[in-house]
Write a structure and sequence with these properties.
2 domains, binds flavin-adenine dinucleotide, globular, FAD/NAD(P)-binding domain, five-stranded mixed beta sheet, alpha/beta
């Protein structure tokens, strides 16, 4: 095995994955005083949002009342930084989301990471965790049946010049897929009815003069007609974001498969691109406003709504969020509806936004995996049921759980406390100090 020139470094906190959760975790940990390393397999931050050219942050605003922010702290700094770069894309897009330009999103992340003093390694694919002895602890991973506590003390990553081991007392899994939890042998679930996968795409040279809701009407009509005529079996939405006159982003493709199965995901990538082509051909044939359009870009990778969900010290349920249950260790607030993209062959807009519910609380225990010490999980795979995940999976909530994980990890590293034993009162106070919202009003 070839060793990287960066092999064997030690930090206070290591964050794996630079999506919404990972970036929030890394910046918040560094701002709280931790020497922090962020490892990301792509060459930029932002995760799914930037990789798929998605323009919206769901769940920064309350769906029930768009004038109320339910996530602040790092999320607010990120949005302000994007706006300062000229990346506000809200204009005439849906009022319940914060809409930004993805390229400005990437640059804003670079700037915030640099300002916070985070060591960043892009093109760094984390492929294992280290145990106390400095060796890999993959023993339980395949069986997913860990019962004894493993303590992880570092990670191993494939870098551009070879393999490197990095050590820290607390590691944060921000991979969106609970990849570290997998390697560490923490228990997780994969729902049998896992949500549909999507290849987003952008169309250029669309007819000028339509706002986003008119584009949704136009594209929905065209695809429904094609579906009724038997030209297409399945599609979602479409949901449209309008970046400028002449350009729209389309969320409509739908493919199925378990994204943690390497062969199934590879097949799905090919099907996703084929579906994009099929939908574009239908749109330009059936919608006059799109007849001269062309595909500006498709997602650089298929987008995964759901994969592994960890089993943590608390499992948040749909009943908890609908009842707005209060928790003494609440560290973040969510409010997105239970938004589960169906796998049944249903086409069009699945019902989800009809009855927006009030903001709800997320306990710290959802970030603490069972059976493994030294690890916190933030973002999509936090400990919930499949139904509750339909609400917590979105980026506003991922930014909030990421910030909570970053601050929690810093307190644990500083005081030598295992994440499972952290005093939630201390954590909530430290989060309030970073302007985060920790309780539903
Ligand atoms: C198809 C689709 C459409 C969506 N549309 C919208 C939308 O319109 N609006 C909206 O608000 N939300 C949308 N979402 C939801 C949103 O994008 C995600 O839920 C949110 O970004 C989750 O953030 P995250 O940080 O947990 O994960 P991610 O954004 O997935 O970030 C994970 C990061 O970890 C990195 N990583 C993974 N494994 C490794 C590894 N081994 N080593 C190093 N790095 C690794 C990845 O490269 C990635 O950068 C959509 C999601 C999907 C799938």
């Amino acid at each position: 095995m070839i060793k990287s020139s960066l092999d064997n470094k030690t930090y206070d906190i290591i964050v794996c994955g630079a999506g919404s959760a990972g970036v929030a975790a890394a910046c918040s940990a560094a701002k709280a005083g931790a020497r922090t390393l962020l490892l990301e397999r792509h060459g930029y931050g932002g995760g799914i949002l930037t990789a798929a050219m998605i323009h919206t942050f769901d769940a920064i605003k309350s769906c029930a009342d768009n004038s109320v922010d339910i996530v602040a702290g790092f999320a607010r700094e990120l949005v302000a930084e994007i706006h300062a770069l000229g990346g506000d894309a809200t204009r005439d897009n849906p009022p319940e989301v914060v809409c930004v330009h993805p390229e400005m999103h990437k640059i804003a992340i670079d700037r915030l990471l640099a300002r916070a003093g985070v060591d960043v390694l892009y093109h760094a694919c984390v492929c294992d965790v280290l145990s106390d002895a400095g060796t890999a602890v993959t023993a339980n991973a395949a069986a997913n049946t860990a019962t004894a506590n493993n303590r992880i003390t570092g990670v191993e990553a494939a870098l551009r010049d070879g393999r490197a081991r990095f050590h820290a007392p607390v590691i944060i899994d921000g991979t969106g897929d609970a990849e570290l939890a997998l390697h560490a042998g923490a228990p997780f679930d994969i729902a049998p009815d896992i949500q549909a996968l999507t290849c987003h795409f952008r169309l250029g040279n669309v007819a000028p003069g339509h706002d986003w809701s008119e584009w949704e009407t136009i594209t929905r009509r065209a695809l429904k007609e094609a579906h009724d005529a038997g030209e297409i079996k399945v599609y979602g939405g479409p949901w449209i974001i309008r970046l400028a006159d002449g350009e729209i982003s389309v969320n409509a493709t739908r493919v199925f498969g378990n994204p943690t199965d390497p062969s199934a995901l590879s097949r799905a990538e090919q099907e996703g691109r084929a579906h994009m082509l099929q939908i574009w051909n239908i749109l330009r044939r059936r919608a006059p406003a799109l007849k001269d359009s062309y595909i500006l870009s498709g997602s650089s990778q298929l987008h995964i709504r759901e994969s592994r969900i960890i089993r943590g010290e608390y499992v948040l349920t749909e009943e908890d969020i609908r009842a707005c249950k209060r928790f003494d260790d609440s560290i973040a607030v969510g409010a997105w509806p239970v938004d589960i993209h169906p796998v049944t062959g249903f086409s069009g807009v699945h019902p989800h936004k009809e009855n927006p519910f009030a903001p709800y609380e997320i306990p710290y225990r959802c970030l603490v995996p069972l059976a493994v010490d030294g690890l916190l999980v933030a973002g999509k795979p936090i400990s919930t049921t499949h139904r509750a995940h339909g609400s917590t999976r979105v980026p506003g909530t991922s930014l909030a759980t990421g910030q909570a994980a970053g601050v929690a990890a810093t307190l644990c590293a500083r005081d030598g406390t295992p994440p499972r034993a952290l005093d939630a009162k201390k954590l909530r106070a430290a989060l309030l100090n970073q302007n985060a919202i920790v309780s539903a009003a």
